[in-house]
Amino acid sequence: MPLIDIRYTEGGLDDAQMARIADRITAVALEAEGLPDNAASRAISVVT
């Protein structure tokens, strides 16, 4: 799985925006790795 860093200004994103970004990045990373976007694949993906 690729390592992706996102930098943003403190307070620049609310919790809902962070959740949408994390969801989309996970989907893109899984696609890039050739993995299906399902519960099992997401279970091995970590977003911190």
- Note the main sheet: none
Shape: elongated
Order of helices and strands: HH
- Rounded to an integer in angstroms, the radius of gyration calculated over CA atoms is 12 Å
Q: How many structural domains does the protein architecture include?
A: 1
Counting DSSP E segments of at least 2 residues, the number of strands comes to 0
Low-confidence stretches: none
**Percent range for β-strand residues:** under 5%
Share in helix: 40-55%
What is the mean pLDDT? 92
Distance between the termini: 14 Å
Structure class? mainly alpha
Helical element count? Answer: 2
Put the structure in a nutshell.
By secondary structure, the protein is mainly alpha-helical.
Describe the structure.
There is one protein chain. This protein has one domain (about 15-48). The chain contains two helices and no strands. It has helices at about 15-30, 40-45.
Structure keywords:
mainly alpha, 48 residues, elongated, 48% helix, 2 helices
Set out the fold topology.
Elements: H1 15-32, H2 39-43
